[in-house]
Amino acid sequence: MGACSSIEDATPTGTSEERKRNRSIEKRMSMDQKVQNEVHKLLLLGAGESGKSTLFKQMYTLYGNGFDREVRESFVKPIQYQLLRTMRSLIKAADLYYRSTGDEKYLFPSKMPRYRRYSEIKLTSDVAKDIEKAWRHPAIQTIFEMKDNFQIPDCAEYFFDRVKEVSKPNYLPSNNDILRARARTVGVVENSFSIQDNKFTMYDVGGQRSERRKWVHCFEGVSCVLFVSAMSAFNQTLMEDQKTNRLCESLMLFDEICNSRWFEGTSLILFLNKRDIFFKKIQRFAITDCPALESFSGDLTDFQETSTFIKEEFLLRNKTNKCIYCHITCATDRANVGFVFSCVKDTVLKDSLERAGLVVDGGSESDYE
Known about the structure:
Layout: H1 16-37, E1 39-45, H2 52-63, H3 69-74, H4 76-101, H5 125-136, H6 138-144, H7 156-160, H8 163-166, H9 175-180, E2 188-195, E3 198-205, E4 224-230, H10 246-258, E5 267-273, H11 275-281, H12 303-315, E6 324-328, H13 334-355
Parallel strand pairs: 1-3, 1-4, 4-5, 5-6
Antiparallel strand pairs: 2-3
Helix pairs in contact: 2-13, 4-6
């Protein structure tokens, strides 16, 4: 009939080099699929008040199902309690400060209500007006400028400015409210999500000293450790130990984690968090207030110089051959966290392929975002 043979009759074998290349491609595709199907375990570690939990919640807004009504309602009392407690702390600090200086004309007479039970907490419109009035008082504003000495949370100003909204009977916290809500992490919290069909499970554990003994239970099978440090904490002390500088504690903890036998073959990514607060703070305070940063001799108000110095202090603690990636982050910035975690995903997948025997080039020691 015709001179042409059918496709089924053709049996092209190709050259030896082509067959070798085909096998390599098939192997790579098979391993790529295996890595994609693997659930990558991410472990968030760091000292208390570093912003770990904020990062954890931000990931939920980016890649999870978001916060449903029940979850949002569960944040109402913690936010209201935080407002009341913080204002009480500011009034008490103002009272002590102005009595000690003899300038009693600035003593603030208002008292915030106390509740016998947490369940009784209710931020009424009248109490909200008292908080709003107190917040505008010169004595409170003066003390707030010294907030680093009184363990005032970073989110205080944000919620004082929203006290009317928070006191409404039908108040339902927004994403930004939930991200900024301060709630101490107790035990281990888990969240699973996918980024471009790659599966991840993230674990957030309490950062306070009393919680760290529970960390070891999360160490097995970790794909990547995400160590979070608040770079803005260079002039603050721990809540649980008023004599220990927060950044010094973070450096010590990073040294332990980075060089731990538990994580010899585990990727480690450093998050220098709260860059927005740090940027403002270095205009008023010197990073050399932190004992670990006393040797800094550059421009104390220059963000690049100061942040680079802090990054290098962390990397100096690495006594292993592992490559540590570093990101400058703001956990409340959705775009920043989304971009950074895209980089984290690439790092985790690259390391998974390397462990499978498929080496991928690339990887600088640090990436600034």
